[in-house]
Amino acid sequence: MLIVFKKCFFLQNCSLFLPTGTSTQYAKAGGLASESLSSIRTVTALNAQPDIISNYRKFLIEAMRIGIKSGLRVGFATGMIWLVMLCTYAITLWYGSTQIADTLEYGYTDWPRAQTGGKVYSAFFACLIGAFGIGQLAPPAAAFTSARVAAKTFLSVIARKPLIDGLSEEGLKPNDRPTGAVKITNMTFSYPTRPDINVCKGYNLTIEPGQSCALVGPSGSGKSTIISLLLRFYDPNSGSVTLDGTDIREFNTRWLRSQIGYVGQEPVSILFTMYLR
Fold this sequence. Notes:
Helix content: 55-70%
Structural class: alpha+beta
Strand content: 5-15%
Radius of gyration: 34 Å
Number of strands: 4
CATH topology of the largest domain: ABC transporter transmembrane region fold
Shape: elongated
């Protein structure tokens, strides 16, 4: 009987291990909403609200589908637990009654053939209480499992080795300040999240030291991308970006970024009032 209850506990424990797919879909939906709200002017300018809403709905529908499947599994597991438990009650009491009947019929007096109602119920409740005690381990086990699932996500991020390490000490660190000669040659680039869309294709640009340069173009044409590549937030798919005739990939990343002053597209006003002179 105890073995049967252990199986019930194991089945209940498994039913509590909800899939990570639901949390993943909610994370995607939340990320899409956050990104859309932070760039609401761009979304409005491009009239992209219907597409954003459609993609957001897809994430929620997928999360709902996974949740329904999970609910069915939990319901089935709970039903099986009660089925096995009630069948165990019936079988235990039936078998105990046969033992008592044999004892009374044949006059058994020696153990273990001699059985009484007290002994049957003592064994029955001992197994029952023990099985329920073991079953109490299910909620903590489910909590540990949820913690492991959550930890796996950020531990994988921590363990991931970045392609461009901004904390590395490797690379050139010239003692002299760069003159500022920037040259981009036949560069092709696409963002890792959209590898099939080329933001820059065969791009060429030369900026001489002391020269002022303005990059003009519609949204998404690669203006900010050029700055991101110059700061080595990304590396081009092909071509080269050089500073004073040296490929920027040969410089130490931290040193390179310390040589460049960058103000974002939407700076906070306090940046101009307090820090820029």
